[in-house]
Amino acid sequence: MHADKLRALFIEFFKTRGHKEIPSASLIPENDPTVLFTTAGMHPLVPYLMGYQKHPMGKRLVNCQKCIRTQDIDEVGDESHTTFFEMLGNWSLGDYFKEEAIDMSWEFLTGGKWLGLDKNRIAVSVFKGDKDAPFDGDSKKIWLSRGLKENRIVALPKDKNWWGPAGAAGPCGPDTEMFFYVGEHVLPPEDSNPETDEKNWLEIWNDVFMEYNKTGDGSFVPLSQKNVDTGLGLERVACILQGKKDIYKIELFSPIIAKIEELSLKSYDDTRYVKSFRVIADHIRAAVFILGDNRAIVPSNVDQGYVLRRYIRRIIRHGRLLGIENKFCSFLAETVINVMKDPWRELENNRLFILSELAAEEDRFGKTINQGLKEFEKMMNGYEKAYQATGKKVGHIPGKHAFRLYDTYGFPFEMTEELAKERGLEVDAAGFRKCYEEHQEKSRLGAEKKFKSGLEDSSEKVVRLHTVTHLLHKALRIVLGDHVQQRGSNITAERLRFDFSHSDKMTEDELKKAEDIVNEAIKKSYDIKCEEMTPEQAKKSGAIGLFDDKYGDTVTVYSIGDFSKEICTGPHVKNTSELGRFKILKEQSSSSGIRRIRAVIEDS
Ligand code: SER
After folding, report:
1. Is residue 113 very low, low, confident or very high in pLDDT (cuts 50, 70, 90)?
2. Residue bearing the bigger pLDDT, 220 or 532
3. 459 close to 52: Cβ distance less than 8 angstroms
4. Separation of CA 531 and ligand 1 centre (Å)
5. Cβ–Cβ under 8 Å, residues 311 and 283
6. Is 136 helix (H, G, I), strand (E, B) or coil?
7. pLDDT digit string, tens, across residues 193-243
8. Strands 564-567 and 426-427: what pairing?
9. d(CA 374, CA 29)
10. What pLDDT was estimated at residue 550?
11. How far is the CA of 243 from the centre of ligand 1 (A)?
12. Sorting pLDDT into bands at 50, 70 and 90, what band is 535?
């Protein structure tokens, strides 16, 4: 069964069980500063899981979500890990709970009309219990009553069997994970399970029982509603359905692997090269999807742009390891777009942008990488000489050496770290950071970790800035014209950042006008109203929105008095009088055709 079929079957299964299909959210989370990328289908659903809001499509939802998990980057290279993947998920927002969730998972996995997997090759885990939440005996009982044997049910602690929150705080809970036996026997031995024989059991699906809210102080408080959040790894399940052990051999990857073979004249089956093949194949998918998401992210030294840069530079470095010296990223990107463009139309729509941004980054790094690698070798020789002279082994690459590679040759810190690791060395990260900070006003590295506060502790400020973002959006359309459309939004407790389509730098006068319009609107004490309607009704009513295939059947529309009307998932303040004084800090280019504004509100 191909991944396309699996995707469709999953959606169909849950639709017949009363679920409504929602579109995949953007890979770049909107209005959540605590993570850089969408890591699971639940991420955009946080306000509904928390019970803050009613989802316009109801309490039972299903979708296929594009996800990026950079924390798995070091594991890429084996047979089953990727950082970009598609996640099939179903949700109960305070509707069904454990019994129905488990029943549906079991039916979909093993039912003859659905995947028809061998029940004897499935094992599950349940939460063992600790000071925050009890042992999940309910799930165990349900699994037993469905015919799963005791020896295939393991109880695991929180580090393995608890999911969420996605950011620093928010909805989370114990989970029951489903595994498929991929060992050498036809049937797993009696005593084999995901605890005793971890490497032979591939995790394929996770049902999370989200009934807790992890708060900013680290405690777990029961939510007002009990939710279910599940995630099934599309590529992994397609892989086992195709009787393969290596995820990179399924049809979503094989054309990419074949293209790398063609470009490098190396074979994927050669164990010396297999890791580089996999790294390149995973990273090029991630890079293409980030660039194609909304054209809002381009390679840079901060936040998502930095991760994108790391991806592309890592692809280039592993390309060199395979002997590819010429520019090659756009060839691979073409293959990715061709393979994925059916379900993911944004890739086709943004094809030229994706290819040209990749080529530009490759130009930048292509010029310096070979010299940088030489420099790295020189450093290694220097350490060896020092060792011979003093008898003392150099265990660390000093921070200033790593910084030189970064500053002069464009090596992301993590790349130097990877090169060092291959030689059994570490890099002095603190020393690197110090050098970096000395050169920059403010370190932007480690962006993924830099947002300490979760939505929870900052939510009031974030919500206020979110409403101000709507006012700004409208003000920009008044001052610059209706071509202005939101291209990205990122809000922290301190500031808003708004990307929009407009080609020229804004003049002082335009900026002042936009700022004044927003402040006028705030002064008018407009009420904020929230309504649900179909996308067609929303369009007719003049609501701002992208009106592409991003919307489901029902959307939420927020109006701010008669000033602004916009499709949005909220949350927002109740009245603009809660907002304070609006101030634009900076207007700059974000990428070609897109401008970026940073702004704050000051208490008046
Ligand atoms: N959020 C859970 C996971 O990612 C289930 O979707 O595993």
Report:
1. very high
2. 220
3. no
4. 30
5. yes
6. coil
7. 999 999 999 999 999 999 999 998 889 999 999 999 999 999 999 999 999
8. unpaired
9. 39
10. 66
11. 24
12. confident
Q: How many helices (H) and strands (E) does the chain have?
A: 19, 18
> Which three-class secondary structure state does DSSP give residue 87?
strand
- Check pocket membership of 231 for ligand 1, CB cut-off 6 A: yes
Task: Mention every residue, 6+ apart, whose C-beta is less than 8 A from residue 20.
Answer: 57, 58, 60, 61, 62, 552, 553
pLDDT at 217: 87
CATH fold for the domain made of 459-602: Threonyl-tRNA Synthetase; Chain A, domain 2 (3.30.980)
Ligand 1 within 6 A of CB of 282: no
Mean pLDDT of the chain: 91
Q: What whole-number distance in Å separates Cα of residue 249 and Cα of residue 235?
A: 10
Using 50, 70 and 90 to split pLDDT, how confident is the model at 174?
very high
Pocket test for ligand 1, best of 93, 163, 172 (most atoms within 8 A of CB): 163
Q: Which atom of ligand 1 is nearest to the CA of 231?
A: 6
Fold of the domain spanning 3-245: BirA Bifunctional Protein; domain 2 (3.30.930)
Could you tell me if the CB of 63 is within 6 A of ligand 1?
no
Q: Give the CA radius of gyration of the chain.
A: 25
Distance 229 CA to ligand 1 centre (A): 7
* Span from the CA of 90 to the centroid of ligand 1 (angstroms): 10
CB–CB of 183/198 below 8 Å? no
Cα dihedral 133, 139, 144, 146, rounded to 10, equals 180
Report the pLDDT value the prediction gives residue 593, as an integer from 0 to 100: 83
Q: Measured in angstroms, how far is the CA atom of residue 167 from the centroid of ligand 1? A: 13
Across the range 581-604, mean pLDDT stands at 90
Side-chain-side CA neighbours of 507 within 13 Å: the count stands at 5
* For the CA of 89, the nearest atom of ligand 1: 6
pLDDT at 209: 98
With contact defined as beta carbons under 8 Å apart, do 336 and 256 qualify? yes
pTM over 0.85: no
Confidence check: pLDDT of 596 > 60 = yes
Crossing angle for the helix pair 274-294 and 351-390, to the nearest 10 degrees? 140
Cα separation values, 471 from 113, 410, 544, Å? 51, 39, 12
Percent of the chain's residues with pLDDT above 70: 95
Segment among 39-43, 105-109, 148-152, 331-335 with least mean pLDDT: 39-43
Q: Which tokens sit at 173?
A: 């809970």
**396-397 and 426-427 beta bridge pairing:** parallel
- Please work out whether the CB of residue 40 comes within 6 Å of at least one atom of ligand 1: yes
Ligand 1 within 6 A of CB of 292: no
**Atom of ligand 1 at shortest range from CA of 40:** 4
206 close to ligand 1 (CB < 6 Angstrom):
yes
Average pLDDT, stretch 573-589?
93
Atom of ligand 1 nearest to the CA of 166: 1
In this model, does residue 454 exceed pLDDT 50? no
Q: Shortest CA distance to 484 belongs to which of 463, 498, 465?
A: 498
Instruction: Give the residue, out of 88, 230, 232, with the most ligand 1 atoms within 8 A of its beta carbon, to mutate for a pocket test.
Output: 230
The answer to whether the CB of 55 falls within 8 A of the CB of 30 is no
Tens of pLDDT, residues 359-387? 999 999 988 999 999 999 999 999 888 88
